[in-house]
């Protein structure tokens, strides 16, 4: 039987500590059950992947595990009528890379219900330039739109703007006509962010100070991938009737704020999940990405890497050394 390389994570039997990820040669028999087998051609590295590979966060909950929460590839075997051999597919989330063996291997075996057909207008490489981060950014934009936000409502803030979610969110919002304020802790990224369409750059330190019940109304809405004190400050400076889509916790999972934005300004806090989103909403998000994500901007946010670079990239993304998106081609 053909052997192929996979990034493999184990855990010591008598300890809570996760062993470092390593490359291991495996076969299809080592994969978990599923009704569709996919030859993975492209994957990516998200913040969650960084936590999983390095063991710095409790992402992996089953051992042994192949990490990687996103992939694009082609079907090589199928026991479901929904997919045929040769179909080009995408997977984001569903616990893959956490509780079900994931993308960091030449093949993945998963449930067909977790897949969507890759839109014909989107290459596999661009699909992974989007990945969970970009697809989450689109879900955030859709949530803001559903809350009534339009470009005439006022400026929109994007926190963690030079990261994966932030880079795609800035690009989409600018394409849609919003005045985008990009918050970043990397002053050197100003030209990059303005190239994506940001109208203003905000030093993240302005959102990292002590939290007040309410501040000056500065934006009509926001996409926040940071959480903690930053999110609390964002809420306190959101205009009356505004909305904030929260999708990340790079700074922390706490929310040390006040109820004042909600009860005095009617601000809406919109929680955005990407892992368990129903299939129809996934398809709708990708349809919007095809139409509303400028492909030249998508190419600009992507850095290409190979399989041998994945473990190192996992550490880099946690250390804040990654700009935009990473695309791995097998």
Q: What do these coordinates show?
A:
This protein has 330 residues and is an alpha/beta fold. It has 9 helices and 15 strands. The chain folds into 2 domains: 4-118 and 300-329, Quinone Oxidoreductase, Chain A, domain 1, CATH 3.90.180; 132-271, NAD(P)-binding Rossmann-like Domain (Rossmann fold, 3-Layer(aba) Sandwich), CATH 3.40.50.720. The two termini are 20 Å apart.
Specify Rg, calculated over alpha carbons: 20 Å
Total strands: the figure is: 15
State the CATH superfamily name of the largest domain: Medium-chain alcohol dehydrogenases, catalytic domain
**Total number of distinct structural domains:** 2
Q: Average pLDDT across residues?
A: 96
For this entry, what is the oligomeric state of its chains?
A: single chain
Low-confidence stretches: none
In short:
By secondary structure, this protein is an alpha/beta fold.
Topology:
Elements: E1 4-8, E2 22-26, E3 36-44, H1 47-54, E4 70-78, E5 88-92, E6 107-110, E7 115-117, H2 124-146, E8 156-158, H3 164-175, E9 180-184, H4 190-196, E10 200-203, E11 219-224, H5 228-236, E12 238-246, H6 260-264, E13 268-271, H7 279-292, H8 295-301, E14 302-306, H9 310-318, E15 325-329
Parallel strand pairs: 8-9, 8-11, 9-10, 11-12, 12-13, 14-15
Antiparallel strand pairs: 1-2, 3-4, 3-6, 3-15, 4-5, 5-7
Task: Describe this protein with a few key phrases.
330 residues, alpha/beta, Quinone Oxidoreductase, Chain A, domain 1, Rossmann fold, 2 domains, seven-stranded mixed beta sheet
């Amino acid at each position: 039987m053909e052997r192929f390389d996979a990034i493999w994570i184990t855990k010591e039997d008598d300890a809570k500590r996760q062993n470092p990820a390593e490359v291991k040669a495996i076969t299809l028999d080592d994969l978990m059950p599923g009704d569709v087998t996919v030859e993975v051609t492209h994957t990516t590295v998200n913040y969650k992947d960084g936590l999983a590979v390095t063991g710095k966060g409790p992402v992996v909950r089953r051992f042994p595990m192949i990490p990687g929460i996103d992939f694009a590839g082609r079907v090589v075997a199928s026991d479901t009528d929904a997919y045929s051999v040769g179909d080009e597919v995408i997977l984001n989330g569903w616990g893959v890379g956490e509780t079900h063996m994931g993308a960091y291997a030449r093949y993945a075996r998963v449930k067909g219900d977790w897949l969507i057909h890759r839109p014909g207008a989107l290459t596999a490489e661009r699909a992974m330039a989007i990945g969970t981060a970009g697809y989450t950014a689109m879900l955030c934009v859709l949530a803001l739109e559903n809350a009534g936000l339009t470009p005439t409502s006022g400026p929109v803030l994007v926190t963690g703007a030079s990261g994966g979610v932030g880079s795609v969110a800035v690009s989409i919002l600018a394409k849609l006509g919003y005045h985008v304020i990009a918050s970043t802790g990397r002053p050197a990224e100003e030209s990059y962010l303005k190239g994506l369409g940001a109208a203003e750059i905000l030093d993240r330190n302005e959102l990292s100070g002590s939290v007040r019940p309410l501040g000056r109304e500065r934006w009509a809405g926001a996409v926040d991938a940071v959480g903690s004190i930053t999110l609390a400050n964002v809420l306190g400076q959101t205009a009356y009737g505004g909305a904030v889509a929260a999708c990340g916790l790079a700074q922390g999972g706490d929310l040390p704020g006040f109820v004042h934005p909600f009860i005095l300004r009617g601000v809406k806090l919109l929680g955005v999940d990407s892992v368990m989103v129903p299939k129809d909403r996934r398809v709708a998000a990708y349809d919007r990405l095809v139409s509303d994500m400028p492909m030249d901007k998508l190419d600009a946010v992507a850095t290409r890497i190979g399989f041998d670079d994945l473990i190192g990239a996992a550490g880099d993304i946690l250390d804040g050394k990654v700009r935009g998106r990473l695309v791995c081609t097998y």
